[in-house]
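User: Okay, second chain of the day. Same drill as before: sequence in, structure tokens out.
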Amino acid sequence: MCGICVYINDQRDVTESSVRLLCDRIIHRGPDSEGITVLDGVGLGMRRLKIIDLEGGGQPIFNEDGSMAIVFNGEIYNFQDLRRELVNKGHRFKTASDTEVILHLYEEEGEKAVERLRGMFAFAIHDRTTGRVFAARDRMGIKPLYYLEKGSRLCLVSELKSLQALEGQSFSLDEVALDQYFSLLYIPAPRTIYREVCKLPPGHVLIKDPGRPARLRPYWRLESRPFPGRTEAEWIAEFRARFDSAVASHLVADVPLGVFLSGGVDSSGIVAAMARGAAGAIKTFSIGFPREYADFDERAYARQVARQYGTEHVELEVEPRIGELIEELGSIFDEPVGDSGAVPNLLVCRLARQRLTVALSGLGGDELSGGYQRYLGVLVSEWYRRVPRVLRNSLARSIEMIPESRRGRREIDRAKRFVRAVDLPWIERFFAYSSPIARDRREALYSPDLRTRVELDSALDRMRGLADAQPEADLLNCLLAVDQQTYLVDDLLTVADRTSMAVSLELRVPFLDHPLVEFMAQVPGRFKIKGNRKKHLLKQAFAADLPRGLLNRRKSGFSIPVARWLREDLRGLLEDYLSADRLGRQGYFEPRAVEALKREHFEGRRNHSSILWGLLMFQLWAKNYGHQGG
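Assistant: Same drill. Structure tokens below.
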């Protein structure tokens, strides 16, 4: 696991010092070593976190005759099989690393090499004989890769903050991306918060030839094609086999390895699969909260699994005095991310890093198998739309009168969203259930000047386009495909990557092993959600491995009591960053609208925790990256 930087200039010399400046911004991604090479106007740089081939895997790595070089971030789980094949074809290896396997595979198969890689990756290869730079990002977008192209200069980096070191480069706020952020609390690819920078989409390669602009092309596309001809038992049997294979492949490491155990089905299933595969002593890590936050504490379920499988279990109890930690997130994320789950993610990563270098996470299980309430909401609303409108309107009026929870529970908010959006087309319904901030509220939030430059339906249009690209999917699988290409990659995986790499910890996600993803895209939606039981197939698959109470309990998620904290422990921080004076100088938001949100939330009349947290995270980012206005 590393951070990589690539600097290309067709008209000017690239210096080693300029590449080092880019790498210096991401030392946290690779504190163990640095590697830089500059040849023929192309600079390759990396920061390394040693995971495989600790002594010999330094980068950049060159091929036998020095005509090609590679920098690589990630892990290739089938590298040993590929290596044996390449040795049989006459390739000579100088290291035992997976990085060198990619390079020799590219020598052998060219651009098609990327299609044979199983793992998480972002890499760049420089071919000196042609001058071409070939870069790629893994199919699910587990590892990040950003690019900036201006004139003769092209830069590719693991984190946006590296680009801040570019001499003579300025950055302007992308107002369309800003509204996408407040629509979803993350910015979906290919946009970033800056007009000048893009994310390389998952499953894409970038090719840069001398004197020509970079071009992008997809090498893999998520295609949901449910296959009707199998029984539930057959689907379950194949899922277990594929899941065990995915978990086993993710255990290859030359350093200590463990699991984030939340007490949910997904992470508990990973522990069970490790135990079935005789992985040896399993290290598990959980966080929880004091008694007054019991609704958010899942340690009791994690302990059940830890006891059942005899893991070496470690816990951390989080106190609500975390203002300093919140401010730290503003520098960790180099574009705004409004997911409050970043707090427990960072805390559990810090806890795990005290004892290991690699951790497995249950990320992706919900998006593969139908684990969120919004999926059930869209399915139920298809039936509910057949209820006479007069009855629906009467129920809607009753629900709107129910006061929202001061404790931050979402059931009442979800019910109100359900009845408000039920008459919309299904993709707009799904967007309404996914977006924490409604369109009219976003419009009122923006200053008059900003309001003229945003596109209020941009994020919805992005989801609509992704849904249209799944013509063979049933409704649930279409929803899952949209989430896998938006929320999963640009929120959850971004949070996981930044919080883990901030403490130099590698995070692996076996649910997103691409053969497993492709298999789950064939499973009909009726097996994923059955009646009102979310994740039905997954729970049935793990029924013999996990405590019954864990399988059937209400999902809490990896969350924090953010509504209460914003009223109490974080109130001072919120008042400071969202003061009328600061907002007025900045010029993005209407101070009166923000003041009304704060007042209603502080008084407990409305739960505005999502929008207030999103505003706070934006302001922390703006302070750290020079967008305070004034």
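The first strand starts at residue 2 and ends at 9.

User: Thanks, on to the next one.
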